[in-house]
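User: what does the whole thing look like in 3D?
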Amino acid sequence: MKTTFTKNPDAAGQLVEKAYEIAKEAYAALGVSSDKAIKDVLAIPISIHCWQGDDVVGFEGADTLSGGGILTTGNYPGRARNGNELRSDAEFAFSLIPGKKRFSLHSFYAETNGKKVGRNEIQPEHFSAWMNWSKKKKIHLDFNPSLFAHPMADSGYTIASADPKIRKFWIDHLKACRRIASAFGQNQGSPAVDNIWIADGSKDYPADRLSPRQRLRDALDEILSVKYLKETITDTVESKLFGIGSEAYVVGSHEFYMGYATQKQIKLCLDTGHFHPSETIADKISAMLLFVPGLLIHFSRGLRWDSDHVAVFSDEMRTACQEIKRSGEINKIDFALDYFDASINRIAAWVIGSRSLRKALLEAYLEPTRLLVDAEKKGKNHERLALLEECKTLPFGAVWDKLCHNAGSPVSTSWLADVNSYEEKVLSQRK
Ligand code: RNT
Ligand code: ZN
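Assistant: Here's the predicted 3D structure for the full assembly of 431 residues, as structure tokens:
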């Protein structure tokens, strides 16, 4: 695709500046500094998920994702098949995404040089290529234990299993993962998020809902009793309503982890796809921030179910960002993406989701929150509503273009041309 922006970057830059000048005045009239909003928003780290690059397959020799109640659909050519391909695809995507980025791995992206290493036995050394890359590129890593797509998870239960052998295997896996995450944190000088999500649950109504939850609690207690410096690791737990094959019952439900995270004072992960289809996470943020040290948000997009479509600039994403900005506690939030669409160019999928989230953050930072709150305090709710309506048509796009321009990142859709040539030169060669 050719746009004015690719044909003539200088003229494009001038256009961006010209539109921005007017936009800046419009926001200043509402008491908002757009220069400051741009600067602040560029500094917020977004943890991009590695698994969009290879359809959640990993490097253990599988060729598709199987199990865990999650599903990738589509067969667009060019999936990354090893660490080098995944890293170079990610680097290319990063060049098209403005602002501070992190990269989130799953444990099955270990590189073991062809040696079979059990998930209960993985070590930091199996991630040395990732850690070297992270240092070199100054991209901090986050981590996720993988308790699915594995024969020991075939029963549908892992650490909540009644079988002590299965439980022990996965407890050891989770312990190994925390060790690895903490090594990441040490290597990069910033805590790595280690997000625990398990798929345990059942297809039909269980007679005993309590025992698996007791086992889950006890297993987590054991796993978290190993202490690491908090400068190296941030522990989080992720709930879910249902999955494929766990339609009736998920052990790690929202209420379970809400209680657990509050009791243990660890961070809670809210995934936008993990609630009832008409339930959104925005209203949960201020409630949970009173009781847990912080939140990890997985921006995803469920279409009719937890389908993990590419996250977009949706009302759900926008209101979540708005709530976070309004809370004044952005420092307690870890922003992350979690989706996997194999039916479109995977690099574009990364770029679209990441840019949309940064855009939603910018919109939130440009909101004249003080004016809204003042109107509300005065009991002038019609003023609050009028302002909110007006905000929707402020020249936001001009500020977004300026943010991209300031970050040296492509403006508008000019990045599509780069994605197309990467597809031609690199992705289409992967047969
Ligand atoms: C699954 C959870 C989980 C996974 C990734 C791959 O429903 O959202 O976060 O998507 O860990
Ligand atoms: Zn998730």
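In plain terms: The mean pLDDT is 97. The beta strands are 46-49, 101-106, 140-144, 192-196, 201-202, 233-238, 249-250, 267-271, 295-299, 333-337.
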